């Protein structure tokens, strides 16, 4: 026969709570415990014996081969062992650990008590009102007197407690007074009896000392849910505290605070009735609460729930470091189909930001040095690598910024000539009417690729100089308004760039027609609102948040969406020139290189140069050509005009004069042949 020793007070059999122990004989009734029983029970997290100690129960004899259940009573030793086991989690605590913990508690309690006494002394002296002492000394003194009285009452209460406990002559009147109060006196007497317990002062002192030790330990320990910038961790508690500090009320964190790349991400549900836009506007306050830069905090509305925001707190500014490189700048990239979506930016999570150019329009704005031209270059490269797309360009600064793209332009205005730009815009309006005739003939409502008409990109650089022109500014704005309002379905895509965003340059009737808007670094909220729309800065979207080192960073607003923080691509000049050469080769191969007519400014300029050289000469000096060519102010301006067309000045020998910088007739004719005509 065997006996099963139960390690639990109940009668449920368990693989870990039973140990089968053989008996010497059925008559002996003596249970012999196996030596490994305690270890088995300890590993199972159980303790031998019941919670309530019971007397030994005699074993009943059973037949051979049967099992009889009995319970070994819990002793005082096993009960203490169970308590220690629960406190320590089953781990052995070394004596030196206990000594170290006691020493730390003694030190922390002493320091905490001294620190608390210092805080109390400063409170009594009203140190927080020290700045007002010179202006309002009576007020400060009144606060001090009130606090001294409060401290005196507290000290007197403690002294009275000790006095009542120590002197019977005082104790008897107190008992008489409590007896007169009836039930209230009984309650007060009970409380007083506890207070008069001899160990009460010691317990109170220990409680104060322990509280001071815990407070000092918590003060020295960094918060587990602190800001990511401070502790490297962020939890739901830190998120809730930050929203409370930003005056956004008690929020609920939906799900865990997760790590995504270089940022902490949390889904936050705002209090009932509070829209997501209010939290988005509070990003600077949230950044202050988290201890980070405002640009490191990004809050976005959650689609489908107006009271939730997706919060992202970055470890560092998302736009630090070098700008991303444009995939189109890689050797051999292209061709591109502008009827499809193209990538123009990367967002703060380094994800592609793509747009659909058809039925679109673009506005790039920002103060000088914000990266406007470099960000817009991505769109220009995509247009160039589509051999079917037409590019109408209005160059400025004598065309130095866009000279590599001039050979592929279908139309090109005279650089820095507002009158020439007006003529080009008027031609664009006529082209728009011609396209609508084709659409009407097809029985359609808008242009389609199968109609055989390409997308036309109207690239207007430095809009400020054109719109502020005293003679042609009004005409430029009216023509752009007409094209922006009516040209979408005809496949005409205006692209406007300006480094002076203000109402005089971009009036609201023109800005509101633009589908895609990019606002780079701005010096005022009004400049940013001129690009993105009125009130955007008040909603928390302002170009002022970007610093000078954040080249190409900006806010990108697409139609029917909130602005997104994006960064444009950086493409070195030599890479951009290589893309322009590839664009020329693609158009030449596809047979879509622009032809030159009498109204093409490039052809007119080259034919004028050939006329000045004359049929009897094969070369001309730069000085003579600049003097006779009306479009050129000097030799440098002349070189700026001809270099984009492939005609450059070189040292040339002139009989009777010597070596001078000049132009050869063969170079001019070669450039003119590129446009499909000769002089």
From TrEMBL:
<dbReference type="GO" id="GO:0003677">
    <property type="term" value="F:DNA binding"/>
</dbReference>
<protein>
    <recommendedName>
        <fullName>FtsK domain-containing protein</fullName>
    </recommendedName>
</protein>
<dbReference type="InterPro" id="IPR002543">
    <property type="entry name" value="FtsK_dom"/>
</dbReference>
<keyword id="KW-0067">ATP-binding</keyword>
<feature type="domain" description="FtsK">
    <location>
        <begin position="339"/>
        <end position="529"/>
    </location>
</feature>
<feature type="binding site">
    <location>
        <begin position="366"/>
        <end position="373"/>
    </location>
    <ligand>
        <name>ATP</name>
    </ligand>
</feature>
<keyword id="KW-0547">Nucleotide-binding</keyword>
<dbReference type="GO" id="GO:0005524">
    <property type="term" value="F:ATP binding"/>
</dbReference>
<dbReference type="InterPro" id="IPR050206">
    <property type="entry name" value="FtsK/SpoIIIE/SftA"/>
</dbReference>
<dbReference type="InterPro" id="IPR027417">
    <property type="entry name" value="P-loop_NTPase"/>
</dbReference>
